[in-house]
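stage 2 :: seqdesign
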């Protein structure tokens, strides 16, 4: 595998687009900080989540672990005029945190400004930071539903959350919470940042295979007939029939026809399928690197089986892997989210400790050594 100066991966002659880390910078005549070269880095993370099957499964599993079975006691309480519950907002911010390592909510103060009356989730990808002041503090945030088309969807500016400065027009504020990343003072980088290219490659290899199946010809042998060359019109008809015959999943592995002048008997030439083995190996390595970036030590946690765990049973491996997953991924992320979210709820009048109802990802009684598993290389 090699990378061209344009950031394109070249693998076995096929080209794949690379993902670059975002440049976070001030831009002249702009009130907000750019989040990536085109200010669309969060949108690229959404695309990766939507297009990589392995990455999507990892993110959803982390989110499910964080939210458990909801917040004890107050989870079903309504928190805004849309009729959303605390649990519903908590689930949304948890998904955002798993994807971006940050989340944002819109805080509405009561008329007397003594408490928070409403909390609304804001998609993290739709929020941008204002420029820090001389003390490196961000005083305002901007929200737009489409940063790629500000002419049609202009941003609105909100005061950064401040319980001591909520008078007048500051009744509606944005609470913007994110993990500190060295070198990035106003925006986070995802925890899986080291595997961004692997996640992108996973999605692009899937598209590559899909294109080959639906648009390409992938015969397993060439049949060369030496009974004369048809006229151009006849050849066009033959080619149309071949295209119709050899395109699609049901026709994979059939043969290809050619014609030449009479002379010898028909020739049968097998077509090398070494690339198939190469891509299987590539997909396995990509999956392994994505799991590693998410700190998932066993694919069994996702219902996958790599066939080489080294444990005497699936249940034993799942118990060990889940304990590690809970301790190194779920609990730290949950604590980070609750540190900010719990403070918001306290200011909204919910003076209780935030506790999550436990929700085991795996029911130990249902784990058997013979339970069917999806092979990791099939994703």
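stage 2 :: out
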């Amino acid at each position: 595998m090699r990378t061209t100066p344009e950031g394109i991966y070249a693998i076995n002659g096929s080209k794949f687009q690379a993902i670059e880390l975002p440049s976070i910078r001030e831009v002249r005549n702009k009130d907000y900080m750019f989040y990536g070269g085109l200010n669309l880095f969060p949108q690229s993370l959404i695309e990766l989540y939507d297009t990589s099957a392995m990455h999507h499964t990892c993110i959803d599993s982390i989110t499910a672990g964080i939210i458990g079975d909801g917040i004890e006691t107050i989870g079903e309480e309504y928190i805004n005029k849309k009729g959303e519950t605390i649990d519903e907002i908590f689930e949304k911010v948890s998904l955002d945190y798993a994807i971006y390592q940050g989340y944002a909510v819109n805080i509405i103060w009561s008329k007397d400004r003594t408490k928070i009356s409403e909390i609304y989730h804001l998609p993290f990808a739709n929020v941008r930071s204002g420029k820090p002041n001389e003390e490196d503090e961000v005083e305002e945030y901007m929200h737009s539903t489409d940063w790629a088309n500000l002419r049609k969807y202009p941003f609105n500016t909100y005061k950064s959350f401040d319980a001591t400065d909520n008078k007048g027009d500051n009744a509606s504020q944005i609470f913007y919470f994110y993990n500190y990343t060295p070198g990035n003072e106003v925006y986070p980088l995802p925890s899986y940042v080291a595997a961004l290219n692997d996640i992108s490659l996973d999605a692009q290899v899937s598209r590559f295979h899909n294109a080959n199946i639906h648009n390409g010809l992938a015969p397993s042998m060439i049949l060369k007939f030496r009974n004369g060359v048809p006229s151009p019109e006849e050849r066009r008809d033959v080619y149309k029939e071949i295209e119709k015959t050899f395109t699609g999943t049901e026709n994979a592995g059939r043969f290809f026809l050619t014609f030449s002048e009479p002379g010898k008997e028909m020739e049968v030439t097998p077509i090398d399928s070494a690339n198939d083995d190469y891509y299987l190996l590539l997909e396995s390595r990509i999956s392994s690197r994505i799991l590693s970036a998410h700190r998932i030590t066993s694919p069994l946690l996702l219902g996958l089986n790599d066939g080489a765990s080294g444990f005497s049973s699936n249940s034993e491996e799942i118990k060990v892997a889940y304990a590690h997953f809970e301790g190194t991924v779920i609990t730290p992320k949950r604590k980070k989210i609750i540190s900010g979210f719990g403070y918001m709820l306290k200011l909204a009048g919910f003076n209780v400790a935030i506790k999550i109802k436990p929700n085991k990802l795996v029911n130990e009684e249902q784990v058997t050594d013979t339970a069917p598993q999806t092979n990791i290389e099939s994703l």
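stage 3 :: structure notes
- Residues 1-14, 361-379 have pLDDT under 50 and may be disordered.
- Helices lie at 41-51, 53-67, 86-100, 196-215, 232-246, 274-293, 314-347.
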